[in-house]
Amino acid sequence: MEQIPLVDLGAAHAEVADEIRAGFDRVLAATAFVGGEEVAAFEREYAAFGGVSHCVGVANGTDAVELALRAAGVTVGDEVVLPANTFIATAGAVARIGAVPVLVDCLPESFLIDPDAALAAVGPATRAVVPVHLYGQLAPAAELAAALPDGVRVVEDAAQSQGASRNGRTPGVGGIAATSFYPGKNLGAYGDAGAVLTDDPDLAARVRLLANHGSAAKYRHDIAGFNSRLDGLQAVVLRAKLARLGGWNQARRDAAARYRELLGELAAAGRVVLPEVAEGNEHVWHLYVVRVPGADRDAVVGKLNAAGIGAAIHYPTPVHLTAAFAHLGLGRGSFPEAERAAEEILSLPLHPQLTADQQQRVVDALAGALG
């Protein structure tokens, strides 16, 4: 039985293998293992791709969120507003600073942060709001920034949105954004990697300083920082994939449109709720997330997996219901939309190399699993 993976990293590697091998040879010959020209070139190229002035490569996406928050002035005891429906790393980055996560609900149609709830949660101790650009489309970062009081900054979590835009604006434009290049992302490394994006040269310099032990020159440490640097080998991978990212994102859009057509009957019958694109968004479909209301979602995913379909759940537990953040005292019922999503959603295979025949098989298997 042919397996249809959620993400096909092998197929993606086959497209870039020769370039990466040549790039690795360059790094090995130069012994430029941390930083170096490959990293500098990637930072320039990704800044240009993202439409921002500065890109600072760092070790991973969680560090990128933390560094962006620290650069924006978040410190111990400050409050940071973020959605309950996100990967736990968003809240984890806040906690590592010693700041306090203030959670809010998501919108039922897009699963993105509820902007009204976010604004209502802002208080005297709030230093930042983190709109998470989830599943491949952007939350209303610019709209939130315009409505926030002085002294409260928007710090975007753009880990799932490489190439996405909202009303023509990309993450980090006019502010600061963090992204992840975890292997399964639209732009994925061959290990952990991340970046911070901004138009502000002072913020970029602050991130670079924090990520290099607070050091702008060897053995001179101006502030207390830590070690979070992008290495040359990962930069080689990212450069090779970045050259294809526009085409790969279009292939994802095409696959998403095909799913919408193939799932039409199930959606019309109310057995599946299809994902919606928020107004003004250019979606890059990092994940194709559907609802299966009235069904035993976990059983559906189990049947799909048994049939060789790499379905998954993003995410099965909202942040406030995890053991890690139980101390916030937010029990079940605190964020009904995030909780309902966690019970009903599942992600179908979607990647640039997915074929129409494979998608038909996914949809047939989903129909069978729903009974």
Short description:
Helices cover 40% and strands 14% of the residues.
Structural features, described:
This protein has two domains: 9-239, Aspartate Aminotransferase, domain 2, CATH 3.40.640.10; 245-370, Aspartate Aminotransferase, domain 1 (Alpha-Beta Complex). With 371 residues, it is of the alpha/beta class. The strands form four sheets. The chain has a seven-stranded mixed β-sheet with strand order 1-8-7-5-4-2-3, with helices on both faces. It has helices spanning 9-30, 37-50, 61-71, 88-97, 115-120, 141-147, 201-210, 232-262, 264-268, 297-306, 336-344, 356-370, and strands at residues 54-58, 79-83, 100-104, 126-129, 153-157, 165-166, 176-180, 194-198, 215-217, 220-221, 281-282, 288-291, 345-348. It is 40% helix and 14% strand. Helix 1 packs antiparallel against helix 8 (232-262), helix 8 packs across helix 12 and helix 10 packs across helix 12. It is globular and about 65 Å long. It has twelve helices and 13 strands.
What is the beta-strand fraction?
5-15%
Largest sheet: 7 strands, mixed
CATH fold type of the largest domain: Aspartate Aminotransferase, domain 2
Rounded to an integer, what's the Rg over CA atoms? 21 Å
Number of domains: 2
Ends apart, CA distance between termini: 21 Å
Q: Which labels suit this protein?
A:
single chain; 2 domains; 371 residues; Aspartate Aminotransferase, domain 1; 7-stranded mixed beta sheet; Aspartate Aminotransferase, domain 2; alpha/beta; two-stranded antiparallel ribbon; globular; 12 helices
